[in-house]
Amino acid sequence: MTPREYDKFGWQHEAVPHALHLHRYGPPGPIRILAVHGLGGHGRRWRTLATQYLPDIAVAAPDLIGHGRSSYSAPWTIDANVTALADLVKARSERPVLVVGHSFGGAIALSLAAAHPDLVSGLLLLDPAIGLDGDWMRDIAQASSASPDYTDPDEARAEKINGSWADVPIRDLDDDLDEHLVPLPNGRYGWRVFGPAIMSYWSELARDIVFPHNAIPTTVVRAALTRPPYVSDELVEGLSQRLGSAFNLVALECLHMVSQARPDDTASIVRTMLS
């Protein structure tokens, strides 16, 4: 039997192979969607999309290694997450699944499709971050290391409101804080992540782009208001050349948190890709 626990909202959480903590939504039975969050995030970020817009579809949304309630043990790499996610899909589904990846999760989704094409029926990449400039990633990692925590929850909330969460409904922002912001031993507050893992992952975002080896249907959603953009011309051109008519590019007028800012559009694309 797989151990299970329920949070204060009554949502089910399960431990799965490789110590990935799993947020499971939708009807019982084999999963149809694997939802992969971005760097510094967690699987519960998919809850509104799954429960309010896709309630009839079985969704598995794990916390990645070094995130949330999953294992903090090294290695902290894209490849380690691909191995863990492949095991999850094999254990939870009877057929290939649609992989929805946001930001860093998009990079992992691409690598999963390249390494295990038999497990992936399609890719929906929401403002994916991969093949990014190494100097840019160095600067972000350095800034994150210099300011890793907050005086109080209000400071953390203000940072999100004035940043990439500016167009996300307040209820979803507050839900994220409730799940993800925790008191620290030093009396301050920080995200429920393992700092060294996050630093390692910033470097992973500068890795070369990994493309699927076969024509897996792939949709990239570019968040048109993200500055500087995460979705590179190299990624778009590479997918277009390799996949041809199996590739689709969509631009949405939103900031980086695509599924929270535009859940209706995201759900519509999901249903089209599953049909």
Descriptive overview:
With 275 residues, the chain is an alpha/beta fold. It has one domain: Alpha/Beta hydrolase fold, catalytic domain (Rossmann fold, 3-Layer(aba) Sandwich), CATH 3.40.50. It has a nine-stranded mixed β-sheet, sandwiched between helices. The protein has a two-stranded antiparallel sheet with strand order 8-9. A hairpin with a 5-residue loop joins β8 and β9. The relative contact order is 0.15.
Describe this protein with a few key phrases.
two-stranded antiparallel ribbon; globular; Rossmann fold; 275 residues; nine-stranded mixed beta sheet; 10 helices; alpha/beta; 19% strand
CATH superfamily: Alpha/Beta hydrolase fold, catalytic domain
Strand tally, please?
11
- The CATH class is identified as Alpha Beta
**For the residues shown, what is the average pLDDT?**
94
CATH architecture: 3-Layer(aba) Sandwich
Describe how the helices and strands are arranged.
Elements: E1 4-6, E2 12-16, E3 20-25, E4 33-36, H1 47-53, E5 59-62, H2 78-92, E6 97-102, H3 104-115, E7 120-126, H4 134-146, H5 153-161, H6 170-180, E8 181-183, E9 189-191, H7 195-204, E10 218-223, H8 233-243, E11 247-252, H9 258-261, H10 263-274
Parallel strand pairs: 4-5, 4-6, 6-7, 7-10, 10-11
Antiparallel strand pairs: 1-2, 2-3, 3-5, 8-9
